[in-house]
Specification:
The chain is α/β, with parallel strands linked by helices. It has two domains: 34-67 and 343-451, Aspartate Aminotransferase, domain 1; 70-341, 3-Layer(aba) Sandwich (Aspartate Aminotransferase, domain 2). The protein is 41% helix and 16% strand. The chain is built from 16 helices and 15 strands. The protein has helices at residues 7-17, 25-31, 57-60, 69-81, 94-106, 120-137, 158-163, 167-170, 196-214, 240-250, 272-276, 303-309, 326-341, 344-362, 398-409, 431-451; strands at 36-40, 43-46, 51-54, 111-117, 145-149, 179-182, 219-224, 254-258, 282-285, 297-302, 369-375, 378-383, 412-413, 415-417, 420-423. The strands form three sheets. A seven-stranded mixed sheet has the order 4-10-9-8-7-5-6, sandwiched between helices. The chain starts with 6 loop residues before the first helix and ends in a 5-residue tail after the last helix. The mean pLDDT is 97. It binds pyridoxal-5'-phosphate. Residues 119-121, 124, 153-155, 225, 229-230, 258, 260-261, 286, 297 line the site of pyridoxal-5'-phosphate (PLP).
Length: 456
Amino acid sequence: MSTPRTSREWHDLDRRQLLHPFTDINTYSTTGGRVIERAQHVYIYDTDGNEILDGMSGLWCCGLGYSQDAIAEAVYKQLGQLPYYNSFFNCTNDIAIEMTSRLLAVAPKHMQRVFFTNSGSEANDTNIRLVHRYFDMLGKPDKKLIISRENAYHGSTIAAASLGGMKPMHEQFTGLSYVHHIQQPYWFGSDRKLDADAFGLQAAQALSHKIDELGEHNVAAFIAEPIQGAGGVIVPPETYWPEIQRICNERDILLISDEVICGFGRTGNWFGCDTYQTKPDLITFAKGVTNGYQPLGGVMIGDRMSEVLASGGGEFTHGFTYSGHPAACAAGIATLQIMQEQDTIGHVNTTLSPHFEKHWFALADHPVVGEARFKGFVGALELVRDKESGERLAPKSAATAYCRDVAIESGLMIRAVGDTIICSPPYVCSLEELDLLIERLTNALVRTSREFGVKQ
Ligand SMILES: Cc1ncc(COP(=O)(O)O)c(C=O)c1O
């Protein structure tokens, strides 16, 4: 338990001692942030007594909200039974085996094996190791290059950040030389001279061009999120994924579906690859797999890679102390059980999503909204000064930062990414709570347009 302290004491200690992810260290040292001390259902509570409706499901991970006692109990019970044992050196533990089976049961049929990590970033590092090993074992050692996309987010270790395509991240470190990037399928961010479907095809064909440029015999894999989450909920045009799949099939390129955000229901199915009907060779998972109750990530490995990897060739020299941690796996099993028993995805698809989607798309009528995107149970709003031309509010990102801050002040947690507002509500919201979310967001949009002088 933490020491009893006043809100001010928490703030002071925090800003002086804790380094926060993706935060301006200098500014934060003076301004500080918001200290969250408890959560219930779909609400988070800070040390100043504010109640905030969590429109982001934590960091996309707490889709089942914060009051899932069965997950907490499963973790507690597991810690009493077997708090730790590793899966190195010909050992394993029963709960990791159970979790693997439960996971494969909800995964696409061709997924055959699982490698556990603690996070999505480590899982994407693992993908690179698996892909390189696979082609080495096939006697194609030149196949080492990985193609990813601009503005992708695949995590924050050196390898995962290299896979990612976020400029501000690349400016702060030297990325891996064997990762290359192509354009993203961000239609609203393009010049919009093509219609969305034609643009989707063109964006997918960038993969083919990059393979030509690098040489097919050198290219190992293409990695992508079904819907880019952290990049701004970029829902690709319907033409995009079928063309990507076609190219991967024809060009002997492995497909890695990074489902750290899209997995476990966010796009309306268990996995984003189910929604877009692709057949990835590797699936990265994390976040929602334990509803955020424990750190757990990993990679699911499809049939053709599984067969080769298990066909001989000696030790796979990769792993983490906590791969298959019993408490994390117990949380995962409990999470999957809740989602299956309560038919969470079915409930979202039949009840929550149709209701919310209608209100979400209606936000596109607001003068400051240039485009509203929505898929499954995740949405984005593009903020603009002028709907027709798509001219942005200046300076860049200022309006979304304002809108987000106003929303949080009024009791709604949403996120701003560049000029895009994004939202990823919990699956356990009531219809009334979704209405409250829309009401608070609408008020934030009204205040933003007033602040930035956009005509109502
Ligand atoms: C698509 C995607 N991949 C990987 C990661 C990295 O996961 P983690 O933060 O658990 O390392 C994230 C995190 O947001 C993500 O959105």
